[in-house]
Design goal:
heterotetramer; A mainly alpha; B mainly alpha; C alpha/beta; D alpha/beta; B: mainly alpha; MetI-like fold; 12 helices; 71% helix; globular; disordered N terminus; D: Rossmann fold; 3 domains; 4-stranded antiparallel sheet
Chain lengths: 337, 314, 461, 411
Amino acid sequence: MQVRQYLIRRLALLPLIMLGVSIIVFTLTRFTGSPVGIYATPDMTPDELAALEERYRLDEPIPVQYAYWLWGLLRGDLGWSGVSVAPVTDVIGLKLAATLELALFAALVAIVGGIALGTIAGVRRNKAPDHAARFFSILGASTPTFWFGLLLLIPFYLWLDWFPIGRSTPEIFDTIAHPTGLYTVDSVVSLNPTAMWDSIRHIILPAVVLGFGAMAIIVRMMRSSMVETMSEEYVDAARAKGLPEKLVIKRHARRNALVPTATVIGLSFGFLLQGAVAVELIFRWPGLGQWVTSAILSGDQATIMAYVLITSLIFMLINLTVDIAYAYLDRRVVLGS
Amino acid sequence: MTMTSENVTISSESQHPRKLRSRASSVRWARRREVMREVLRNPLTVIGVVIITLFLLMAAMAPLLTEANQPDPYQSPRDWANIDAAPGVEGHVLGTDSTGGDVLYGIIWGSRLSLQLSLTVVISTLIIGTFVGSVAAMRGGRIDNFLMRVVDVFLAIPELIFALAIAAILGPSFRNIILALAVVFWVKYARIIRGEIIRVKQTDYVAAARVVGDSTWNVYRKDVLPNAVTPLVVQATLDMGNVVLIGAALSYIGLAQAGLTEWGAMVSAGQSGILAGQWWVSTFAGVAILLWALAFNLVGDGLRDALDPKTEGR
Amino acid sequence: MSITEQQLGNGQPATTSKSDVMTLRDVTVHYPVKEGVLQRVTGAVRAVDGVDLSIPRGQTLGLVGESGCGKTTLGRVIAGLVPATGGDIWFDLDETAKAQMERLRSVPEKSMSAEDKTIWSHLEANHRLGSMTRERQRVYRRNCQFVFQDAFASLNPRQLVRDIVGRPLRVYHEASGEDLDLKVINLLERVGLGPQHLLRYPHQFSGGQRQRISIARALALNPEFVVLDEPTSALDVSVQAQILNLLVELQEDLGLTYLFITHDLGVVQHMSDYLAVMYLGRIAEIGPTAEVFHDPLHPYTKVLRDSNPSLEGDELDHSAHLRLTGTVPNPIDPPQGCRLHPRCPVSTSECGWQVDDMFLSLETSTPASFEAISRVERSSPFAAQLVMDDDVAALELFTEIQNSRSPFGGAVENIELDGANVSIRLREVEEIPLIPVAPGRMSSCLLAGRPDGIRPPAESR
Amino acid sequence: MSNVSASDVNNSEDWLLRVDDLSVHFHTPRGVVQAVDHVSFEVRPGETLALVGETGCGKSVTARSIMKLVPEPPGDYASGKVMLRNPATGAVIDMLAAPMDQVRATRGDRIAMIFQDPGKALNPSLTIGRQLAEVFGEHRAQMLLTNAGIDPAKAPLGSKSVASQRAGVIRRSFFNLTHRGQSRALQAAVDASVIDALSDTGIPNPRKVMSSYPHELSGGMKQRVMIAQALACDPDLLIADEPTTALDVTIQARILDLINDMQQRRGTAILYITHDLSLVRQFADRLAVMYAGRLVESGPALEVLRSPQHPYTQGLLAAIPRAGTPRGQLAAIAGSVPQLIDPPPQCHFSSRCSFSAQACTNHVPGLIPLPVAREVACLRFTDAVSLGVNQEQMPSHVDLIEVESAEAVSS
């Protein structure tokens, strides 16, 4: 089967692209001068600063610095995170887990909602549900995530107090073990209903806010591919066999419409990673986004670079998975062409 | 098969060739008008066009609508007497923020910033992207391979995150946000136009032009580009809105100068007041962003439906 | 009109005219197939695989075949749209030039005399596609035009008819401004359209009218030769008749040479003087149309003819008709010997049977034996050692092949049984070339020259 | 030569399908397209009726209307009935008026359809076996249960629903766990039926084909699969919508042989939709010609081909290149098909017809019975008096007697 060969090729290309990403990011950071400030204290003398530069090899030419940085990266050393006051590698796992948890729940909202709405819109084309779904999807694509978050906070947090802010109630959070780092999963694993309820209450609002925009993308793709498959001859052929309409839609139209939608689901994950930055800020969710924002505001270059690298890596891996899923969903696809 | 109403028949007296030339351009214009009519048949598109027109008017007439603040019109005038004033307070139709900045003033002058942002970013990236994508697709081979690997690298980083990193490194200023977005956005266009050109290059009308013996440049200019450009136009329209969304997100995070009449920055500025019940600053600024993005999304969506051959006839 | 033996050997059909517009020698078009992690080239799709063809001036050569036989690719190669990957395509050779070309073609460049070298380079610079001078290239480009199957797809949807039809004139600076408009109007009138159509877009026309526009464009430069690639297969019969009539009228008036590519036998019979039948990248048969129809010299031609529904004749009983079995083989790995043999209704043991054919027939006739094969070691396309699951299966296979009365059985030169191993060797057969069979007629079927011809043997009916 | 008049035939009760005054309209932004306009015909049990016409004449829409497959909107059954008679019981169902579950029960069971492009009519993401199994599951659930050794009356709900809804498609996991033996027997019964159906159409190695996906098969093989699927439930009527247009001629010949053979063995009636008149001769009993949404001529196939009466049929036949026609002298029909958006009440062919007269542009010709069970819709066969116009406004008249004698000469 060609899928394996394709997978090997893509995986081989992955480090190359990551190398490209790292070069771009590194060059950008060095554009604005030495990152020595993150290690320095305000009362240091120029001599002390120079010593510091020498220590972190910041006095070398940029390509050499890059080589050192890359070497560090390969050994698992991503530098010192000024905002966390700890090595980047020590912190990044926790932050990543928090963001991934949020993104996964948002993806769940987006995929389930998107496919359902898109299917209805595609089947009932040019009727009320279709118009509603289309408008809804355009609205979703136009709503600034950070603003939408604020908008929901006012009633549900401020007035009704249904959903709390943050990732957890710390007292409850501390009662359970965290083998996976995903609060919801951990609470289920530890069979602690209080923790479960706590984790769910915290994640619902940010997941809905984050998922809304991604859902918009999925709805429009699902709708247009449903419209396309509904007009395929095999759908008529299925009707001509005497199958009930429900089965015709489910088994013949929707199944094939999911294939192009799969690609968009991959792309929407990029959207989720991006949107997470604003959502984490608003909901005080201790993930990568919140981390990088404070890094940006304090010029913490090591953290910014680590953040860009890790999100790009996740993004690429997800797109790769989607491509492979695509090959399994659509038997006609010849990968790589 | 459709016979359109625009069939311009040439009466015998107009068969004189010189008249023909001017008729040709009028036929072309008639065709364009017909396409426009097709686009505007969708009521949602019309709504989008109306909103955009209103925004443009607002931007153009900003100095007439409100008196420009000196020395920097993109900073709201401070009315220290009316801090956190609710909408409707004398002289502040939409209220003021915690530094006494007028919300309405911010929204009006913010439209200029948004226009500047989206026009600069979209036009510059459209040119760069079209150039890179065209070179890759028309040349093919190694050049194509190299350019596409570069594009792959750029695409590997989610655009907001990329822009975020660049803007963060360049330092907080609105100009840097524009620059960051420009660095990020061209890739998408390069990829779209490359794909379209490769598709168009395989069509029979390009083959027909080659049988005739026309030069590559002419084939590109007359056959390839005009037929490849539609999805790019659609994407650019959508991006006129998207750019403002992302730009606003960047300023919201804090990457624009403080106090700027940029809508995202205004949402951010109003945020702290929300818990105290001062909802208006964030809400109105957010509505402005939403409407801007919505308008361009509506028009872009309408264009896609009307122009994209894949959805034609649906 | 006399046909010399030499001419026949060169694949030239009997013609009344002196020269050929195009002469093809051993032309191939192979598309590489890439495989594996490193995308190495592991094979080639042999779209066109060794075609010799001459297109006589002022005549119509019909090229028929089914989808995927390479006819469209061949047409595109001749029109210079697709580069040939092997062989030569000569343009506008007169009789002497052609004789020189034939003489020197087989001589390696090293062993040519100085004089011959000059002649050869002169030939190449003036006549050979790919090595012509710029000027000759221009002459060729002007004189060889193409009409596409799907007229709509071949007309730029964003250009007015005036610009589409006038484009060749502009490219060659033949006309501009008012002059151009007048010339375009003339061309349109020539193909049955009028000045009122000048300023319209392609989508405003019906299918037949679009094909007229595309013909007008092809005629703009006054070419000698037009490749017609299925010009009517997208049209309804009543419109097809209009276009065919127009094409004939234009040919008579302008002395055009046509290469008429089609899958429709009725149309090609009506339109062409000579007929070339293609199968799987090669020419199966070539000759004057009427003779080819009346008495096909290749079983494939006969099957095509018999399969073509017709409004005439008394044959409502089609049991006498030949039919092909199976499906078209993969052009990456075409059958050895005669390309038709695995599907041929009249195949013999000499047609080039190979090991793969055996697997194919086992799979359909005795799936049990096929499934019992556990390993195959091929030493050539004609010889292999099969390792069967057990001795019983091996014996079964052995006896089955030995007792086979099919043409395949006849091709077995040697078969040995050793425990669970069966080694088999089949008669090796070279690719069967296009051979002259009768005056002006060539066929690539072994049986064509024989007394019984291609009639099926009694028992295989 | 038979002396049965057309009206005798029409009144007989020996029909399987009767399409009566069918009109199908499409609502488009540019206006209402009258795709099918007052079309009536019938198909008798076991016969082959060829419905012939050029692109856009409404033949495919007619075929789809019989199955009630025209999408609504934009389609709209403006008038008429599509009646299907059960030859055994004599019960009649109107496909356009019957409740949807009755229509569904008829589709695939009593009327089946094969499509123009087998590559598009098979679902690319389901195996051939699963697609065929659907037909059995939908219409032959009882048979499947019996074959699996399960008494349909006593079968557990699970196996009933597996058989009726999802035969061979999704084996319900719960049912599979609890009734492993039954589930396996059911699957075996489904597989056996599918293999039977496939091998009946001469597909070699049906077991392998069953588990392949459509793209793995050649065009001819896919059409065989379509035929197997259509004939799975032994329908009374098979609608073949240009079944060989997408295929090469050598494959076409074999597929036509196959359809012929299957018809002979099973006595299925066939409604054959095609644009190719030369195919009709080979295996249609009767022929109906459509032009611009209307039926213009019908009758026994060989008779119509031998002596076409409608100017359009005549033109169509003359336009086909034949061995004898001098090159470049095909009798082309001038002009092109008129638009069917809000057409004027006239003979649609009048703009291209050489006999056209004034009366043709303001009267719609109805079908007029001719000898030998033929019908033609042309004013040349009508007299001026019945239309109430002057003789000079009429096209040149043809007497029925002349037609009859022409047939006598030709036969």
